[in-house]
Write a structure and sequence with these properties.
CATH topology of the largest domain: Histone, subunit A
Low-confidence stretches: none
Mean pLDDT: 85
CATH superfamily of the largest domain: Histone, subunit A
Number of helices: 7
Strand content: under 5%
Radius of gyration: 27 Å
CATH architecture of the largest domain: Orthogonal Bundle
Distance between the termini: 68 Å
Length: 150
């Protein structure tokens, strides 16, 4: 049984879309390129989505399967900050706290990178210079950096 090439995206549909919606003409090669690249991609996404469903013993392809595979082949969709915020606000209070902590930690870490401060080296210096325990010098450095980075 030979597998027949399925046209998910048809040449005439693309050509007509460009003409009617955008009031533009298109050459044959450009439309053929779009069709020849998108049809195999759609087929791959469907095939891989089915594999994910089968791995979970399902006979239904779900939105999550398709999204995972689309991200793998096309890349992640960049969301606008307002859409991200709406999604975050749907979380329960515990998860909101974790998200908040994660964001603060990320900002603090990147501020440290930007300033070039190496807290471990500073801690080591303090412990040697002032004969402090490692944990005491780490607490001092943590306190100082927290105060500086507020």
């Amino acid at each position: 049984m030979a597998t027949e090439k399925i046209e998910f995206v048809k040449f005439n549909t693309v050509k007509e879309y460009i003409k009617s919606v955008h009031n533009f003409r298109s050459d044959k090669e450009s439309v053929e390129e779009l069709v020849s690249r998108f049809n195999p991609l759609i087929e791959k996404v469907i095939t891989e989505s089915i594999k994910l469903a089968k791995e979970e013993n399902r006979t239904t392809v779900l939105l999550r399967d398709v999204k995972i595979i689309l991200e793998r082949f096309i890349g992640k969709e960049r969301l606008h900050w307002e859409d991200i915020l709406k999604g975050i606000l749907l979380q329960n209070p515990t998860d909101l706290g974790k998200i908040s902590k994660g964001i603060k930690d990320y900002i603090r870490e990147n501020k440290l990178k930007a300033t070039g401060i190496n807290s471990k080296l500073l801690s080591l210096y303090l412990s040697r210079e002032f004969n402090l325990s490692k944990s005491t010098s780490e607490k001092i450095i943590k306190y100082i950096l927290n105060e500086i980075l507020k």
